[in-house]
Write a structure and sequence with these properties.
alpha/beta; Rossmann fold; binds 6-O-phosphono-beta-D-fructofuranose; 11 helices; 2 domains; 7-stranded mixed beta sheet
């Protein structure tokens, strides 16, 4: 601990409510409790490669705990081990800039890095750890798809946003006797759809973990219709797919950590339902509203706990770890545990059973 003078931090991947609360907590804990300086690399790993950083102090992190976005900027395109060096629109040319990044960490006077990110960012963090950089990770993503933690920060804010959207869709669906579909994010996991769907009173929830049959969805809508419920609410995760279908891809983005941009399943399901039932069906794609804006109090508190715990893990030499919520305690876990696989919704979990018990259909 007594040898540590300065820690570098960065935020990587898609932004997420709670990033600023983590930055604030790391900075206040490092300076206040340990007398350690903090610098923030700008725009994630891009700032690390380009040697672009700023000093963080009490003043610069004051008043940001409740704000959305990240004061450091972020990107989900830049990987120092495969760094894009060709100009935009030309054939991509990549180069390994990891040695440059390590040099920049040392030139900035940093003893190591606290990396705040999801699986793409933490995979890169693990590679730096393997070549000797002192690393501690913080689990960020609205998707909640990281292993080895009960929950990532940002997830509950996204659920809150989606749930509020469902409350609004409910009243207009009922007034117009329509089927309303809400497409939510989550990549290959259905956590946001499942939690928002239960909270927002959805009749059907479609998630990647449970392939759906259109017939079963229509059975549910017709059953409701026959029982004088002439409207239905469907939540579709962007990664959901039919039993005999595949995920809907909006676009391929080869230069991104996440080259498959999902999207379009809501429109597809909506069109199919309208064609087969004749019931007017409308689709809302919630998109980046789930990522923007203020974190809810749960995420402000979790982010603050994660930030302080990350500094404590760093000063106690627990490198190559990620801070994690397990039950009610914050612990550390090996980064390798967190990134070994995407955490999907277990289809035999009590939350799925509960949803079925109250009559929610998963289209299966
Ligand atoms: O991982 C977070 C997330 O919001 C996913 O839910 C979504 O698929 C993806 O990022 C969208 O990323 P982008 O902002 O690059 O389109």
């Amino acid at each position: 601990m007594k040898d540590i003078k300065r820690i570098g931090i960065l935020t990587g991947g898609g932004d997420c409510p709670g990033l600023n609360a983590v930055i604030r907590s790391i900075t206040k804990t490092a300076i206040g409790d340990y007398g350690i300086e903090v610098v923030g690399f700008i725009d994630g790993f891009k700032g690390l490669v380009e040697n672009h950083y700023r000093t963080l102090d009490f003043q610069s992190v004051s008043g940001i705990g409740h704000t959305g976005g990240t004061i450091l900027g972020t990107t989900n395109r830049d990987n120092p081990f495969r760094y894009l060096i060709s100009p935009e629109k030309e054939e991509p040319v990549y180069c390994d800039k990891s040695a440059q990044a390590i040099q920049n960490i040392s030139d900035a006077g940093c003893d190591g890095l606290i990396v705040i990110g999801g699986d793409g960012t933490l995979n890169i963090a693990q590679r730096f750890h393997e070549i000797g950089v002192k690393i501690v990770g913080v689990p960020k993503t609205i998707d909640n798809d990281l292993q080895a933690t009960d929950v990532t920060f940002g997830f509950n804010t996204a659920v809150n946003t989606a749930s509020e959207a469902l409350d609004k869709l409910h009243t207009t669906a009922e007034s117009h006797h329509r089927v309303m579909i809400l497409e939510v994010m989550g990549r290959y996991a259905g956590w946001i759809a499942l939690h928002a769907g239960i909270s927002g009173g959805a009749d059907v929830i479609l998630i990647p973990e449970i392939p759906y049959s259109l017939d079963r969805i229509i059975d549910k809508i017709k059953f409701r219709y026959q029982h004088n419920k002439k409207f239905s609410i469907i939540v579709v995760a962007e990664g959901a797919a039919a039993i005999d279908g595949k995920m809907e891809v909006q676009k391929m983005v080869p230069t991104s950590h996440d080259p498959i941009r999902l999207g379009g399943i809501g429109r597809k399901v909506g069109q199919d339902i309208e064609d087969l039932t004749g019931i007017e069906t409308r689709v809302t794609v919630l998109g980046h509203l789930q990522r923007g804006g203020q974190p809810i109090p749960f995420d402000r508190i979790l982010s603050t706990r994660y930030g302080a715990a990350a500094v404590e893990a760093f000063v106690s030499g627990q490198f190559g770890t990620m801070v994690s919520l397990q039950g009610t305690s914050i612990n550390t876990v090996p980064l390798t545990e967190a990134i070994k696989d995407i955490k999907k919704v277990p289809t035999d979990s009590d939350i799925i059973r509960t949803a079925r018990s109250i009559g929610i259909s998963f289209g299966d």
